Each structure stands twice: as C-alpha cells, then as structure tokens.
Amino acid sequence: MHYAALASGSKGNCHALSEDGLTLLIDAGISLLQIRRRMEILGLDSNSVRALALTHEHSDHIGAVGVILRNTDWAILATAATRTAVERIQGIDIPPSRWIEVEAGRSCSWEGWHLRPFALPHDAEDPVAYRIEAGGQAAAVVTDLGHPTALVADHLQDLDLLVLEANHDVDMLREGSYPPQLKARILSRVGHLSNAAMAELLGRALSPRLKQVVLAHLSESNNDPALARFAAEEILRGTSVALHVAHQREPLVLPPAVA
User: Which of 13, 58, 107, 189 is deepest in the core (most CB within 10 A)?
Assistant: First the structure.
C-alpha cells in the first residue's frame, strides 16, 4: 500500500492510498485540479482514483465534492448523516448509484480492500476515521478529533502506517490571535488534537509492526512543525518508526518500499 498526503491543514485536506493500480482518496478539501496536479507532481496516476471516502462535512474536507460528482465517476463513501450534510452545505445531490454507505463500527469492502470506519469525537454530524487494510498492510487516517478515546486507540493497533492529527500547540493557540470562541472550540473535547494529545494517542498505538507515522492537519497559525515533531519523537525514541510531517502546500509521498 502506498500513501500520499496531497494536502493537510486547516485550508484543505486530501489523502491518497494506492494498491495494485487503484487509489482511494480520503477527503477532498482541495480542488479537483489540485488533486490531479499534486498526484502528477508526486508521480502518481490520477486516473487510478476510483473512490472518495469522506470523514465529515467541514469545508476543508469536502470542498471539491460537487466538481468531483460532475467530472468523474468516482464512488463516494460516506455515512448517511455526512452525505445529507454535504448535500445541504454544497447544494448538491449525491446519486444513490454513486454513494457507498459506510457506518461507524461496521466493516465494509471496496474493490477487495477492507475498510473499518470508526467514530471520532468532533463537532460534525457523524464524523469517522478510516482503518484500511489492503495488500497485507494496514493503515489508518485519523484527524479532526478533540481528544483520544479508547475506541480510537483500539482501531490503531497493529498498523503499518498511521496518519495522525497534530493540530496545535496549546500555548501557541491560547496566546494567538484567534477569537475566544474559536479557541474554545478547538480546545474542546470535540475540537482538534493538540501535540500533547497526539503524543498520548501515538504512545497507545505503538506496536512492533508500526513502520511509518505521518503528522497531519497542523495549523499554520497555532503550531510549529518542529514542536509537533518533537512531541512525536519523544514517544518514538528507541523505535525504528519513520516520522513524517504532512503540509498544506507541499504534497508528501512515502517511499513505496516502506509505505
């Protein structure tokens, strides 16, 4: 399984997982043009994309859904509540023929891949993260959650690859320029994961199998990649896990030999 972060941050998120000539995108918060362009920059085949899995309905995760519906034949994986919310927000209809319903806690198959959506504590209608197993490997993309839960930690066991939110440094957020209401939302138990909370969850996800960790959804205003990296490195010290940081503007692809 190959992984690429096409964009990751508060202005747009899109992750790509590929295996045997098929690519599944998780979220589409950047334009379809940018999705294709960034895949090409990374040497990935944009024609291999066959489906888009949505985690929730916030704009930085669904911005391109309408254009994708009009210009591709990709399937859309989403919970029923997320589908309804996306349709309302974007003023679109996702045809039943294009929609694959997923449900937190219920495993499903897509093109021979095994997907396990699971619930997250976030201020959206029905937010989920995805654990994906294909080609004998297991990966999880886990962003947009306010705090670690036992359920989330359970789904992060025995992974080869973990993409994990490290949204903010608490001190930077508290001392920054965001309005008090927005700070309170981000810091809430249904907001976003701080560096410290990320490190706690990462510690619970460690296993001899884990090879790659990607820190994702970093705030450009309220975090510093060096701070996020340091928090993760403290947990990974003494392991052979490779650590990467995904960015908003520059796509990231992991080496195929170790992805």
Answer: 13
Could you list the residue range(s) of the whole structural domain that residue 157 is in? 2-253
**pLDDT digits over 34-48, tens only?**
999 999 999 999 999
Give the percent of the chain with pLDDT over 90.
98
The one-letter amino acid at 250: E
- In terms of Cα–Cα distance, which of 101, 113, 105, 108 is closest to 23? 113
Spatial separation of the C-alpha atoms in residues 94 and 57, rounded to whole Å: 13
Task: Indicate which CATH number applies to the domain containing 87.
Answer: 3.60.15.10
In the block, tokens 């460690």 appear at 206
- Tokens 């396990």 correspond to what residue? 116
Q: Does a structural domain hold residue 130?
A: yes
**Is residue 259 one of the residues assigned to a domain?**
no
Residue 258 lies in a domain: no
**Do 214 and 181 contact (CB within 8 A), yes or no?**
no
The answer for residues whose C-beta is within 8 angstroms of residue 150's C-beta and 6 or more apart is none
Supply the DSSP symbol for 61: H
pLDDT at 255: 83
| pLDDT one-digit tens code per residue, 111-167 | 999 999 999 999 999 999 999 999 999 999 999 999 999 999 999 999 999 999 999
Q: How many domains does the chain have?
A: 1
Mean pLDDT of the chain: 97
Contacts of 80 (CB under 8 A, 6+ apart): 101, 103, 126
Q: Assess if residue 26 is contained within a domain.
A: yes
